Amino acid sequence: MDDDKVGKMKMKGYFVLLVVLFTGGCLYGQDYEAWLKRERAEREKFAKEEKAGLQKLQKEYDAFVEARDKEFSEFLKQRWKEYEMFAGKKRDAGVPKPKVSPVASAKQDVKTVLLRVENPDEGRLVVRDASPVLRTKKSGSKQVRELQVCYVFYGNKVVLPVDEALKLECEKVNEEYFASYWLRASQSNYDELLDCLFAYKSALGLNDWGYYMLVRAFADHFLKGDNSRHLLCWFLMNKSGYMASLGFGEGKVSILLPARQAIYGRSYISRGGLHYYIMADLKRLATYEKNFAGSNRLLDLGFETALNFSVDRVQARSVVFDGREVKLLYNAHVVDFYGDYPSTELSVYFNTPFSNVAKESLSESLYAGLQGCDSKTRVSKLLSFLHESFPYMTDEEQFGQEKYFFPEEVLFYPYSDCEDRAAFFSSLVTLVAGLPCVGLSYPGHVAAAVKMDSVNVGNYLLLDGERYLSCDPTYIGASIGMSMPRYANQSAVVIKQEEGCGISREREDRVLARVKEAGGNVLNVSTGLVKGKDGEVYVTGVFDDVFRAGREVLKNTSKGNRVFLAKLDKSDRFAWALALDGSGENDLPRHLARHDEDVVLSGSFQGTARVGGRVLQAEEGQGMFVVNVGRSGNVKWTSTVAVPRELVDEGYSYMMKFNDRGEVLDSQFRPMMPEARGEEISVVRDNKWMISGMYTPVRPLVQENRIEAKHERGVLEMADRLKAINDVLVQENVHSTIAGLLAVVSLMSDGSEIIRGEEFIRALDRYNSSFKSKCPNIYKNIKRVDFVKGEHGFVDIKTTDGKSITIDKMRLNNGSRIRFSELPEGHVLVEVVDGMSVGKAFIWFKLNSVKLHRDTGDLVFDYDRDHTLKTFNLGRDILQ
């Protein structure tokens, strides 16, 4: 059986229970034409009212886009300045690496020595003080002739709709032509193309540089000639919101791209305090001095999610672990992608997650040998694994030049050197041992250090007041706490791992348990949990009735959920807690971030709210809030920004900028777009805070007439109502395999709905009667589901006996909580707040979310702290 089929069989059980709990499959039965007609009329009325509220805003957007394009075109006509070009930087070679990996002496003592390290940067600092500009879409009313471009991007089929007006061949190489090109390209319908490109970026788990690679691949397939391709990339990257300049010299054109991280080995110019890397081979270069006003985002070469590529080229490497031979799988498409990736800073390699193929293989192959072991034994076994199973060779010997590996590449290449092994080891320890790691970069060498409270002997460093023990995957035979003698007294630069924010998996579980015991829920672990100094942890979430944080008791006097912010000390005891006490029924925290001694919490609220004695007011009904809290729990400042009323029901992308006193310096709101990401908080120069993200509405996909609904509920049983909504969705071109699932989502988005287990069974028996015989075990377990209840945007799932349900690779705990929201183009996001995990035996990963694609039937699962992605098609991979 090939690896693709094996992968599908292994993962199938992750999702079957989730699918069946939400729907009885595709619903078939008699039509309710009268009900559908009333339903359609109600939806049309709602759409007209909504459209009227957005028309004025769209006209303003169109005028703004047109004026901005004309202004930039006029600027481009001016004579461009010739810049000095600098040769690509080489990595600091420092002390030459050893030709062979050194071997630790059996007689070498493990000494307790505090290592000298350079202080890592506090917080996430960006390199310039500029507010990102959100993409503004045109109305798209112009009739266009649409072409279709298809190509394969690292094993993934890409199909893009393109306006023929974008098929522009480079005719001249001068300022006047570039200005004309910009106006001609701007008049095309490029927004639909960008929407699709960003949708692929999200589905494939691409980062910013991966997005540029996707755009460049499109240009290569769409146009002939490097000059034409560079011009198109320049236009599309700018219109995507990224900084991108254009340069030319001696008849050649090149796109110029600045990035947050250094790119080694590539020529560049220096402009405005940034390095603009040259993507073509030019000997002379002239360019303009001012960026397009709509492009202000630097490309980030770091990865926020795992790559989610096709698994039709899974390969294996045989190694020995703990005395037994195991096969470790990796995705060859992912390795090919990394092979074309530019050489960049070490921090990128230390913070790149494994693909789903490698992650599942490493977990299943190695975890059994670590089960029951304490943290010291786990790390010792993994350290020996690197020493014994991965031969050492310098990059100069293997490639003739320096080349850093991403962790997954270590499974592909026959040899690896120190920085490759250190990044792979750090990722491995975090994955299978659940312990935080950092890298240690010495002149000419890279090692690692692991946070272990149980080990007090050995070379160590202190980071945020906590002890990290030196571990060197290149020092053969070395135990925990041993450093190579030649580096033991040298200062090292700490390379921090962003995943988990320095919190071990065991501690994360303890903190979440304490929050739940207190009466709260953390909505998103990656954005709602942050490590403070000296072992402290800050956490945010919501509670329904009472939140008991030690001596602090927070009460909810409203009908909706309440937002809390709390601090736990190094012993996981509550130090203090604050509540956002407001009048809204669905106030939500969005993101929590730390900078120096303070934490900043952002979120959305309605009406009026109070926190720390300060009053927050949403003038337009809904607003975004930001609260700056000191280490002792004192509220230093609060700030609010009103959300345009026209966007509240539609969902929106936003950007806000504040100074260190909480005064609003800038704010932007746009209709939600495919490129919108979850909340981000960064600190720029002069302690200015920048917050960006998206708000997704919670609403039924099919709006019911509330008066008629009461009558219909007395006539139609739940199964029949699901069938009726299913029919509406199918007529609106929703994929037939997912229409039933989205019908249940629509009902559960209404807070008044309760769907009991026996109703699921009736739906299955009536409209999918063969399911009982095809999946008897799943059918039996459905009866254990007591009810699914939507309230204030959340859905609670309980079991009749109070115990968890495990079917194959998925575990559903009693009291699981999820939240539905609608994404652009009608896709639905199922956010898992608590209680769902994927894995088997001893290996369980928290399920973060599931994205439901209404047009294809694809389900994109996001799990674990590193946001591993995996795509399944409901029809092909699950229901068949």
TrEMBL record:
**What highest taxon heads this organism's lineage?**
Bacteria
Q: What is this protein called?
A: Uncharacterized protein
